[in-house]
Amino acid sequence: MNFENNLAFAQALDAQDDLREMRNDYLFPQQNNKPLIYLCGNSLGLQPKVAKEVLNVQLNNWQNLAVEGWFEGDSPWMFYHKELKKLMAPLVGAKPAEVCPMNTLTVNLHLLMVSFYRPTAKRFKIIMEAGAFPSDQYAIESQVRFHGFNPDEAIIEIKPREGEYTLHTEDIVKTIADNADELALVLFGGINYFTGQWFDMPAITKAGHKAGAIVGFDLAHAAGNVPVQLHDWGVDFACWCSYKYQNAGPGGISGIFVHEKHFNDTSLHRFAGWWGYQENKRFKMEKGFVPEAGADGWQVSCTQVMPMALYHASLQLFEKAGFIPALRAKSEKLTAYLMFIINEVNTVLCEEQFKIITPKTAADRGAQVSIIAKANGKMIFDELVRHNVLGDWREPNVIRLSPVPMYNSFEEVYKTGELLVKICQSL
Ligand SMILES: *Cc1c(COP(=O)(O)O)cnc(C)c1O
């Protein structure tokens, strides 16, 4: 599609957008008595308007039912997670039995590695992307040490080629094949937080399995953003947080995925707790752990009702929007428009002031555009914020702008470009 860099054109795109009303379901922070242009949904999604109400419902349940709330009321806490599973499954291309809301993301990475990183003297290596989110690096490094291996030998990080920012799928596949004999696990991000690159998950999964390894993904930046088919792709396990593109609030509950091919594998280690015990016998309080079937068997502690209520409310808005197919159709266009606008900014300024490091093709990215300013990056970022455009700054030099299809508009993208020109001209 041929984009134009003017307000009328952006407004026309908004007028054609079937999801344009969805933004009315969210609360926008105000600054100087004006709503922010919020381009930071990749870090913390906006608050759904119903959030206060759903929390109040649970506070009232707690007040009126107290401990009986576990088994009584409209939606007893004991089974509440099942309502979420139904809505989480379509977001990641899974069966409801394969997903479960629990804990927080890094905790779940550890719990899933307990089951799926089972190194032997011969097969002990883990392949990941270089520059993964630090929490993943620390989790993987500490798991390797926990099993008595040396991270320098056991962890293989795939780096971009000289002078590039993102990875080539062929380099990933080749590294996997080259290490096939010693490889225990391929653990990749779905989308890299820094560059916004969406990795070729099916190709990575296929290569990992061909090498005889287990394949897992951290979907922190992918879940709720791009279409993934964890079940059909045969991914072994995955986890994600709900507070980025899924708008479930700071510290929101995480989701896990375990492929059903692993459900009957009794040899898998788990760090168990009572909430993973067979549901219909959980309160018999018997000795000897017997897991509940499916992903639920990885639960450890009792259900976190308040964070789950927030996630439930947010998932219902995904359902209202038509889940990922509808959101992605808008997202591809909205992000392409932002990339077009950044190029227009360069054109108006008569120099390549901003370099886009996120892949240009839709198949290789989600709703995030990472840009590097030729000069004064942090100053430009601070000016954006001062003028009501909130993206985020990632050390050492990247401005991340994330137009989220759920609540951002083409007009906001246009205005961001207009502002970038003004800021750069005034520097
Ligand atoms: C956001 C993010 C995290 C954060 O982990 P928490 O345990 O939720 O604090 C971890 N990994 C990746 C890849 C992320 O993007």
Word description of this protein:
The chain has 427 residues and is α/β, with parallel strands linked by helices. It folds into two domains: 7-35 and 323-426, Aspartate Aminotransferase, domain 1 (Alpha-Beta Complex); 54-320, 3-Layer(aba) Sandwich (Aspartate Aminotransferase, domain 2), CATH 3.40.640. 39% of the residues lie in helices and 14% in strands. It has 13 helices and 17 strands. It has helices at 7-16, 51-65, 77-92, 105-116, 134-146, 151-154, 169-178, 201-210, 230-233, 305-321, 323-349, 377-386, 410-426; strands at 26-27, 30-31, 34-35, 37-38, 47-48, 99-102, 125-129, 155-158, 183-189, 214-218, 237-240, 254-258, 354-356, 369-373, 389-390, 392-394, 398-401. Helix 1 (7-16) packs antiparallel against helix 13, helix 3 (77-92) runs parallel beside helix 10 and helix 4 (105-116) runs parallel beside helix 5 (134-146). It is globular. It starts with 6 loop residues before the first helix and ends with a helix. 45% of the residues are buried. The mean pLDDT is 97. Pyridoxal-5'-phosphate (PLP) binds at residues 104-106, 133, 135-136, 189, 193, 218, 220-221, 241.
